[in-house]
Amino acid sequence: MAKFNPRICFLLGFVACASLLGVGAYLQFVEELEPCPLCISQRLAILATGVVFLLAGLHNRGRKVYAVVSAVTALSGASISARHVWLQHLPPEEVPECSPGLEYVFQHFPLADTIKLMLTGTGECAKVDWTLLGFSIPAWTLLAFLLLATWGGLQFVNGEEQPENE
Q1: Residue ranges, Periplasmic compartment (predicted)?
Q2: Measured between alpha carbons, how far is residue 53 from residues 18, 40, 153 in Å?
C-alpha cells in the first residue's frame, strides 16, 4: 500500500474544508441564498473539521488521534447534513413550522433552545433553493463530510514506513 506524508494529507483536508466554506460564502453573499439553522450548523462542523485537519498538519505528533478526531468531527457534520436531507424529503404536511429568525432566537431564547433549533432544523430547512445534478446543497455537503471522514480516517493507517531490519 502506498504511504503518503500524513502532514500533507491533513493539510489537504484543511484546504478542502476551507474550499467548502468558500463555496458557502459564495452561495450566501453572491448568489444571495440565506442559510438556515442547519446550514449554519453544517458550516460550523466544516470549520471544526478544518481546524482539526490544520492542527494535525502543523503538529508532528499524534497522527492516529488526529485521524480519529477528524473522522468523528466530519461524521458529526454528516449527521447534521443527513438530518437536513431528511427534512427536505418530508411530505409538505410533515414539515415542521418555520421559526423566527436566528438572530431573534439568539437574543430572546436560552442557549440550549437555540442549539436544539440549530441541530434539529425548522420549516425553512426543508426548502430546496439550489441544486446541482439533482442534488441539494445539504446532499452535496453530506457527500463532502463522508469524504472528509474517510480522508481523515485513512490517516490512521497512513504512516511513515519503518525501515526493515537487515
Answers
A1: 27-44
A2: 10, 20, 11
| Cβ atoms 52, 9 nearer than 8 A | no
Enter the pTM of the model: 0.80
- pLDDT tens sequence across 110-147: 777 767 666 666 656 667 787 779 888 899 999 999 99
Q: How far apart are CA 73 and CA 148, in angstroms?
A: 9
Question: CA 126 to CA 28: how far, in whole Å?
Answer: 17
Q: Which of 61, 59, 33 is nearest to 125 (CA)?
A: 33
- Report the alpha-carbon distance of residue 86 to residue 103 in Å, rounded: 25
Instruction: Enter the C-alpha cell of residue 49.
Output: 473539521
Give the residues across from 135 on adjacent strands.
132
Long-range pairs of 1-4 with CB within 8 A, sequence gap ≥ 24: 1/157, 3/158, 3/159, 3/160, 3/161, 4/158
Identify the structural domains of the chain with CATH numbers, from first to last. Answer: 6-154 (1.20.1550.10)
Secondary element (H or E) of residue 106 = helix 102-108
